[in-house]
From TrEMBL:
It comes from the Eukaryota. Pathway: Protein modification; protein glycosylation. The keyword Coiled coil does not apply. One of its GO terms (cellular component) is endoplasmic reticulum membrane. Belongs to the glycosyltransferase 68 family. Its main location: endoplasmic reticulum. It catalyses: L-seryl-[protein] + GDP-beta-L-fucose = 3-O-(alpha-L-fucosyl)-L-seryl-[protein] + GDP + H(+); L-threonyl-[protein] + GDP-beta-L-fucose = 3-O-(alpha-L-fucosyl)-L-threonyl-[protein] + GDP + H(+). Its EC number is 2.4.1.221. GO terms for molecular function: peptide-O-fucosyltransferase activity. Catalyzes the reaction that attaches fucose through an O-glycosidic linkage to a conserved serine or threonine residue in the consensus sequence C1-X-X-S/T-C2 of thrombospondin type I repeats (TSRs) where C1 and C2 are the first and second cysteines of the repeat, respectively. O-fucosylates members of several protein families including the ADAMTS, the thrombospondin (TSP) and spondin families. Required for the proper secretion of ADAMTS family members such as ADAMTSL1 and ADAMTS13. The gene is POFUT2. Gene3D superfamilies: 3.40.50.11340, 3.40.50.11350. This is GDP-fucose protein O-fucosyltransferase 2. The lineage of its organism: Eukaryota, Metazoa, Chordata, Craniata, Vertebrata.
Amino acid sequence: MLEETLLAEVTLFEEIHGNCDAWLWAAEVRPAGLAQDMAARSPQARLSTFLQCCLLAVFLSRAGCQQGEFSPGQSAASLPVGAAAQQRRYLLYDVNPPEGFNLRRDVYIRMASLVKTLLKSADWVLVLPPWGRLYHWQSPDIHQVRIPWAEFFDLDSLNQHVPVIEYEDFLAENGGPFIEQVYVLQGYAEGWKEGTWEEKVDQRTCIDQLMYSEDKHGYYRGWFWGYEETRGLNVTCLSVQGSASIMTSVLLKNVSARSVMLDRAENLLHDHYGGRDYWNARRSIVFAQHLRVVGDEFRANVIQSYDEADKTIFIEDWTSVKAKPNTALGGPYLAVHLRRKDFIWGHREDVPSLRRAAEEIHSLLKKLKLKKVFIATDADREDLEKLRKLIPEMVRYEPTWEELELYKDGGVAIIDQWICAHARYFIGTSVSTFSFRIHEEREILGFDPKTTYNRFCGDKEKNCEQPTHWKIVY
Ligand SMILES: C[C@@H]1O[C@H](OP(=O)(O)OP(=O)(O)OC[C@H]2O[C@@H](n3cnc4c(=O)[nH]c(N)nc43)[C@H](O)[C@@H]2O)[C@@H](O)[C@H](O)[C@@H]1O
């Protein structure tokens, strides 16, 4: 019903504004045929594209341009920019495409730290890169691009640490889908000479083939999180070596662009990994309420886990939370994160066979006097069947198709992490950032580190070092 109403609205919009400059411009930019393209998309996507086109029209008319006459040399910084009249500047970023959900959450912390430093000198806001096209998000028939952060995380909580906005808000404020300066970050071609570590950043020729190409107006098109109308006005490669704050001088002194994007931002390191600022940024990444609710309902209905009894009371405002160490008890279950897929294809020594994992789980259940084990895993159907036979005590959060469509692969991953974070004892997979984020969530809740920093050992692993305890700092 909602879909039908939306479709009717979109059709009406198209009828009224079908000949607006923006449509013509967009059709010119994408000669493949905007109309055909639009028809193939969902009503939501068509409405979103339409709104972007209209914003673009506003932007061009403000710039005093006729359709198609916007000169590439003309910096948008010199143009009157609509609602962004407050003069604030926008930091956008993206990450190497193969990187997964949980490393991206880590890169967010590095960018938040950079914004924090920038804010000492000027008014900056961090633009949250929409989620999508992640290698691991393979559920079929589900639209998984251009996902706003609010679908996974609580925006108010993020904003209590540094100012952030969604990409769609940036489009509206910026008055058009142009990013004035894109910096593609890379290492140094000559590498790092041992013993001479220095933090540096230099403009260099691009080492890898650039993932951006010029359109006929001289603007750069690229992935841009699936926003086809977005263009970069300038693209430059920078070799970087050091922590996020090395970009401060570039952003404050070398470039006057109001919107700057750092692509391949994972090339910047943490300013102070595990320090107070790191933990503040990490604590501000609160899961979206609707996902927490699903996790809590599962805990209550399936594994009899309740915040009060488990001593894991959740307080909405993270800034007022300071859990006393070792106070959380956790629900009456063992939680496991068992990473499979690409972790086993690589035949890694530190990943256990299913049989070995099942033995470890049974031994822990006995030792901890627990009866239920919650297993979060990306195992395929065949491995899941094997697990069910090997571990009859296993419980899992298995979404219906409708739930999966609603929460998406990212949301289901968060629900799994939330349930793992509330268990009496947790054991994860070696070097998986998915497991690391669970460690942090448990650290925030105040669990005894002995119940958290544990991992499976590979069947033939000789030196099975356990994960490092990163103590929370307030
Ligand atoms: C070595 C690196 O490892 C990195 O993986 P790693 O850190 O485990 O962790 P992530 O970067 O999150 O990637 C794993 C993705 O697989 C799915 N996944 C894995 N385990 C689970 C689970 O227990 N439950 C659910 N629901 N989903 C799971 C989920 O989509 C998650 O974001 C890769 O992203 C990099 O590409 C690279 O391969």
